[in-house]
Amino acid sequence: MAADGSAASRRGRLSAERERELLQAALDLVAEVGYQQVTMAELAKRTRSSTATLYRQWESKPKMVIVALKARSDEQRLLADIDTGSLRGDLRTLAARVFDELSSSDSMLSIWHAVGGDPELMQALRDILVVPGLDSLDRILARALERGEITDSPALALVDRVLFGPLMIQELMTGDRPTPEFAESIVDHVLMPALTASATEAAGTH
Asked: Of 3.40.228.10, 1.10.357.10, 2.60.120.280, 3.40.850.10, which CATH number belongs to 78-204?
């Protein structure tokens, strides 16, 4: 009996290659038809698998898509190791990479539009995109403070919202997707003047 159970376990275990194939297929289907329209039955049909296999491995559509997003994020590590040597360069690079993450994938956009009705998806997107972005931003600002490019000021507490917020709601506000130029303009015309103003004022008092 134990041998039969062991054999069943082996049959139910996916290879790493097959798991990657199924996860990528899930993201491809989301990009094609939109997150809300994806069903496990359609995914099983397209991948020549069974719904039982998919549910056994991931339990639900949201969990499968979340795992797929996390796997994609771990492979890309887009927001890690940004250090151009200047605050402006770092912020422009960070803005560009967040823009790429939001805009280059139709699956990401579809999921982003669906998160309002799915707390689990919302938390996953925070973990995958927002938290790494905030961690990278903290390192960027800390280095700028050490270099003396900026001084500690109330503006520092608003940088994350000013940088990430417009990129995430641009399409909702205007109907148009954000562009690389839009991302750069946030840095050049809003953030840099606000952050460097206090440093300029401090220098003028000495």
From this structure: 1.10.357.10
